[in-house]
Amino acid sequence: MHNETLKRIEELIRKGAGKAAQAELKAISQGKPPREVLSALASQARRAGMPELGVRLLNPIVRPPPRSPKRATDAEIVEYAGCLIRVGASNEALKLLQNIDARKNPQAFLYRSHGLFTQWRSIEAVPALQCYLKEVRGDEYQRIVGQVNLAAALLDGRYLKDTEEILEVTRKQALEKGYTLLFANCLELSAQVALLQKKWRPAEKFINEAASLLKDQGAVDELFVLKWRAVLALMKRPGKRELKDLNRVRKIALRAGHWETLRECDLFQACATGNEKLLLHVYFGTPFESYRKRIFLEFSRPLTVPESYLWQLGPKAGGKHWEPYGKERKLKPGQLLFRTLSALTSDFYRPQRMGALHALIYPEEFFNPISSPMRVHQAVRRLRVWFRQKRVPLEIEERSGSYYLSSAAGCGVLLPRHLPAESLLDARLKILRWKWGEEFFSAAHAQKVLKTSSRTTLRLLQAAVEDGQIARFGASSACRYRFPPARE
User: Fold this and answer.
1) In terms of DSSP bridges, do strands 480-482 and 471-473 run parallel, antiparallel, or are they unpaired?
2) Backbone phi, then psi, for 288, in 5-degree steps?
3) What is the per-residue DSSP string for 392-412?
4) Burial call 338-349: b when 16+ CB within 10 Å, e when fewer
5) Which CA distances in Å does 256 have to 245, 251, 375?
6) What spatial distance separates the first Cα and last Cα of the chain, rounded to whole Å?
7) CA atoms within a 13 Å half-sphere pointing along the CA-CB vector of 329
8) Which residues does the chain have with pLDDT short of 50?
9) What span, in angstroms and rounded, lies between the C-alpha atoms of 466 and 468?
């Protein structure tokens, strides 16, 4: 029975019927599906836009409690990593995939590329995708998936001729097999290639073809069509009408929660109009170094990047200017509130998803679908309290499980090009974590390893306890300390 359901869901996904697939997945997951189908279910949940479900299904197997007899198979680890990437925990996923024999589990190659894509390191994904294509020759659908991903990676690296050659073949294959969504993906990528080559008529042809295919597939897919139509018009002749069309795309993207479209709209507008101020907003508002390098390649003239940037939130008139990382900063580098604020100020466009926010606040810990959200909520709550106490006119908003900064009164946040280095406290805590991991240790043990005085050691441990980085058990001479388990 489960196999029939899985087959039906797979057909829905391949046809692009995402909502119907989601409904089937919700129904089957409400019971207790057997372990042998969990990997397939997680894969389908990820592809249908429900990666949280995949994480929840596989986490007890991949990250079992201590002394559990459960041992995850490579296939289960691979699918778990794929779902982690979609919830924002890309670094953890990439580490998991390093230990997989990808030639026996080719999806590891594909998911590695997905993890790199989320960090705008697309060109680094090319070798993994080439290996993936060698291993899945017998599976026509997966081969086409790999070719589309390879084309996207090469396009991002601006290898336009190679991208064009791959897409010419892949379009035909996807069309012949009736893989509607993959064919539409090919058309969209082909339009981008033509745009970058300033071949306006082919670009318009590809966009129109994609529009006819995607008109009934959902708001996000239709958004791509509107986006490339607006970009095409702007690149051909930047004017008020074209900017109005691009602003319309921004509004739709904002409602749909498609944040990378907002980033791309700003980049294309800045490059088409020579707007350095907008380009600096994109630069400082993007945490990905490879994307920042792309900005310099796209802009037609040299760009001077200042050492700091004022990010304006809310209304500008009468707003307060705040410098959280300056000489008079109240937040200590490396500590919990500092890490939480730096995570929320790292990206102006994309609200931080739960997995990404957890990875930024607790970089040495694994993501757990139950305990990790609770810890993130606590960190966010503490920063909100701190804002109120210090009268900082900022709010932390939540939308569909993601967090972002806002300001009703208006506030300009002065951000440095490079954040201050971690504090001495955090450097010393890293030494202690390396030494003891999750084992209990005493103040005397810490003093011996750190080679600090008794008073300094106790002060350090007290600060770490108050910051929530370690836990204290017992009192007086029997007092012991312990780092939170990495699997929380």
Assistant:
1) antiparallel
2) -90, 120
3) ---EEEEETTEEEEE-SS-EE
4) bbbbbbbbbbbb
5) 17, 9, 28
6) 35
7) 21
8) 487-488
9) 5
Q: Which residues pair with 281 in a beta bridge?
A: none
pLDDT tens-place string over residues 246-267:
999 999 999 888 899 999 999 9
Strand 320-322 vs strand 411-416: parallel, antiparallel, or unpaired? Answer: parallel
What does the pLDDT look like over 410-426, one tens digit per residue? Answer: 999 999 888 765 556 67
The reported pLDDT for the residue numbered 365 is 81
How many residues are given for the chain? 488
Q: Sign of dihedral through CA atoms 373, 367, 427, 470?
A: positive
Instruction: Provide the pLDDT for residue 449.
Output: 85
Count the Cβ atoms, other than its own, within 10 Å of residue 336.
Answer: 21
Which residue type does 322 have?
Answer: W
In this prediction, residue 419 carries a pLDDT of: 73
DSSP state of 323: -
Coil/strand/helix, residue 91: helix
In the beta sheet, which residues pair with residue 413?
311, 322
The Cα 476–Cα 284 span in angstroms is 48
Nearest one of 267, 229, 243, 255 to 348, comparing CA atoms: 267
* pTM, two decimal places: 0.79
DSSP symbols for 277-297: HHHHHHHHT---HHHHHHHHH
Q: Which residues pair with 398 in a beta bridge?
A: 403
The three state secondary structure string of 15-58 is CCCHHHHHHHHHHHHCCCCCHHHHHHHHHHHHHCCCHHHHHHHH
3 state DSSP class of 355: helix
> What distances in angstroms separate CA 351 from CA 89, 207, 329, 357, 398, one per listed residue?
14, 29, 24, 9, 8
Alpha-carbon gap, residue 464 to 328, rounded angstroms:
22
